[in-house]
Amino acid sequence: MWSRLLALAFALILLPATAHAGVREKIAALAPSGLVLVLDEKGNELIAQNADQPFVPASVAKVVTAWLAMEVLGSGHRFETRFYCDEQRVLYVRGGGDPFLISEELALLAPKLVAATGTEPFTGLVLDASYYPADLRIPGIEATDEAYDALNSALAVNFNTIHAVRRGKKVRSAEKQTPITPLAISQFRARGPNGRGRISLAQQDPAVSVHYAGELLSAFIKRAGGSVKGKIEAGSVPKGLEPVYVHRQSRALPQILKQLLLGSNNYIANQVFLEIGAHRLGGPVGLDKSLKVAREMLAKHGLAEAIDLKEGSGISRDNRFTARGLAKVLDLFAGHAKLLRGRRSGSRFKTGTISGVRTLAGYANTSRHGRVRFVISLAGNTGRLRFRLLRAIERGL
User: Fold this and answer.
1) 231: CATH
2) Please, what is the average pLDDT of the chain?
């Protein structure tokens, strides 16, 4: 009897180690050159395969941006757009880098603006985007028509893109909520695909996206009972002019971050990242300011060497993380895990995808260890393997 009890005790002791070994073997068989790190809630490493190799995080970098934003900006932060009106009824708009100044938001702000200024026609519309430097460039953003390459701006609408449908020379909006404008038609005729598509703006001339913002705002002012009769142009708000209306984004920061993480939107990510620096160090925004604040925050948590950011979206291949560094950020971000995409198992994750790089990181629900943190990085151009490895972690630990 004692021998049986002793054997059972040894079996119970060896079970976790045996189970871990089984998962390790499966992961090694599926992805022998892949990076996989899994830690339990206490920080114990359950799996560490090639975990000492720095890797390109791709869009998994957005988790770091989201964590920094919550730490620096705070959950109550709302982006603002300011409106001014002079004695000649010229309307001035000063952009504040709102990443979610989309058609639905313009539909909310236009009636409030008209209520604050009256229905008498505006004699002109001047758009002030000076909160962002004109020469701002984000590493990794290329001069293409792709939506993921949209340039960042202090004053842009619909993620600095146009979503339309083209049939020959005829162009119509692809969204019921978005009126078509003259500039949208001309841009989509010149660069948009036949059929439905979304193109980025302002690759050659940043003033194009600012002008489009003015056209779209003008259309929503008209819907709200007002009108803009004069020119739409770029310019500055005159000194001493007080705002007649300040629009605070209807979405608080956690809602914006959730959409950022679910949609993996590069434009939103870097709008948020740029605001981190300006919020802490003052405007105008600057990539150098945000990188300075990010490095200070990372150093505070012993991550100065582990997380090397060049921008906030992960589009740059010069971003470099260590698995243990990212796992630490996941520990710091754990209270906001619900902002990440979820699986039926209850696990939460963020993917990263650029050519030759496939990453996956987040929180996995396991049967024996509860919720664990995981980091996966693979070379190649197939993303399915990431999720096979995640399933092995969920079922084997």
Assistant:
1) 3.50.80.20
2) 93
